[in-house]
């Protein structure tokens, strides 16, 4: 007979939180939907919630009194007994509006007000509270007006935990707004029935951590309760609820675990059908990611420096609003602004002359019957500037609400990270589409999900194995059960070559076909990779992931040929570049040049002086020019499999039968030649040798040293297979160069910064005379390259002895990219070890997946720059693996991209600074299906088998 392991009473959404909250407000859940100003949390939303016995708050902030009256009237027609409430947004600049709003609520018997953005109590707020108090026959106090205070600071919460201040009660008595009895009763109750502690949120936010602030306010409540003079019969424990960052069942449950009596959602509801905002905004919110938010100056408290949190993806509001605030802080009046700044503002921000904006501002305040504001501004130029700037901040939220297509890049959309978390949670469900999101459905899904998670957590605490969670809305891909290292991974068997993780790429394929019509070969590059069946276009990225035109998610191990080191959507990197772009765009010499050069000199062993250019090709060609000038000799040595850019003298190589210098018999040197190149450029300028053979190098140098001015190589041959120099090879090469007055150049375009801030030369302990850097030097988002080297060689640039020209050499944004990249790495000294550990795990999974389908695979190179080969043993020479192996490598790359794994051409794999353990899980989920399909394609291509 089976025995129960434990008995656990049912946990439902209706049992979470404080039962008194549900009873007092007449609702089914200890949950309500907080307000968002300007009617975004509309009467339609409030009615939809109230009809399902869920409390909703109308967003009255920023609206005129007649509009608020209209909304209240409509809500009361449908919900005469509630539940519903109205938000009272503190407006210290317009206390008349605040009092009018309170009067309206009292006249229309609005029983619940949510007070937000308060720092101190206002007469209007105390009036609402006190006017609803009455003495009952048993001596207890009836609170007809319930007040929920939303706070984010302990000191503000204290105002609402205590009775209203005496001076405000006396003022209300003097003005005849409350009776003496109401004033006396007010002295015996706290200002608020409930206090919502708000952590990081959309809109106005202190960006606090809910887990810290919440318990602080709870402790404050308990401290005040002990000292309170309120009589026992009227003693009331103020409930403390939680808000901010609540967009998933896990977050809701975490809030209840903190001790929240109730929970509140806010900006996440903007994406719902009933929200009072435009379809364009809802679509943008439905695509938001967790990191797609930024803080920006607020319209209502601009001069105080208050911030709002907004959606930054798809809008320039955060950047432009910050620009306005910076100008406000820097200058005392519009007259002080530089002419170019005014021109920029009128063209890009306001789209009309500032004089016209001022006239509109005057009309606005006259409409509000506040002419004194204009009079004051006319006398105070800085105040006038603030009002003009506030025009943009105020209009931007209205443009978003109305969906003005002409100002879509200026939308101010209040949004917190919870929006992105909710989108991830709803992904793959009918609610992924914002057209299907209804506010009451979202409320139930969140609360039901939290209840389900609570029950599961309790079962786990009782050591009871819980059933597999398959109940929506908990939509989190759980990792597959970890396999023992000696156990062969399980591979699903399929009749079809379409494994379950294969992606639909219809839109991507259609786009690629159009590329062929407009771009030769369908791409902007092709050397070394002439046949690519499919290039997948992407339209967004985050950390190590990118999304294609079909909405598929991919793991980016391509990293733009290894250049992208900072990862996609690196907020610290992006913010730094935007900040500098706001400072200066393009000048001849900028203030970063010395600092960036000093940083490179500090880290790079060979760097005594530095020059900047734009691409790796330019850097290499300039280094060769320096070497020719320094030695007076025109030819240089380069090596098979080493890549040095897109120039005639370094692309391709001669066929063996044409070689007149010593090479081993097995060295073919063949590569399909290209048209359009000077046929004599390779013969005239370079020797191409096999790498890692010091005897061949020595014999060539000794025979032709009068002609050879440089030896050019990758110090670690990543391009040619991930090959290390043999012991002593680099040291002997340098000695040979110094013996014969030859400049040793390390091409660190790939290895520089990607392997470490000092490049491969620091890791290998051999310092060249010159070195070139690019790709990851500036993080990979912007083109920038550099030549660094010995002072006596670099000084040839002085007074034009050697020409180094280029419009964008040392351009400000490129230097800012270098500065930011180095700073991010310096601040995260363990980043290379972390990336290396993740890539080792990915490599191990990759090899297991190959072995599972009986395919050989080896991964070699440096942890942050790896190369895979379809053979059992590491490649020791660039000539050391067959065409068949190379073709199988291409098959792996092309098949893997159809399963959401993007390898770099030439079988390379690169990590970035934002990679995480979740990327290992993602790779493991996809690679086994991909390799099963690879096996099938290889079997078709090579019917004789896969022997190497």
From TrEMBL:
Q: From the Swiss-Prot or TrEMBL record, give the protein name.
A: Glutamate-1-semialdehyde-2,1-aminomutase
PROSITE patterns the UniProt entry points to: AA_TRANSFER_CLASS_3
Keyword Zinc in the entry? The reply is no
Q: What InterPro entries does the record point to?
A: Aldolase_TIM (IPR013785), Aminotrans_3 (IPR005814), Aminotrans_3_PPA_site (IPR049704), FabD-like_helical_ins (IPR049489), PfaD-like_TIM-barrel (IPR014179), PyrdxlP-dep_Trfase (IPR015424), PyrdxlP-dep_Trfase_major (IPR015421), PyrdxlP-dep_Trfase_small (IPR015422)
Q: What is the lineage of its organism?
A: Bacteria, Pseudomonadati, Pseudomonadota, Gammaproteobacteria, Enterobacterales
The Enzyme Commission number assigned here is: 5.4.3.8
ATP-binding among the record's keywords?
no
Q: Which organism is it from?
A: Xenorhabdus innexi
Basic and acidic residues: compositionally biased ranges = 474-495
Ranges for the region named Disordered are 472-495
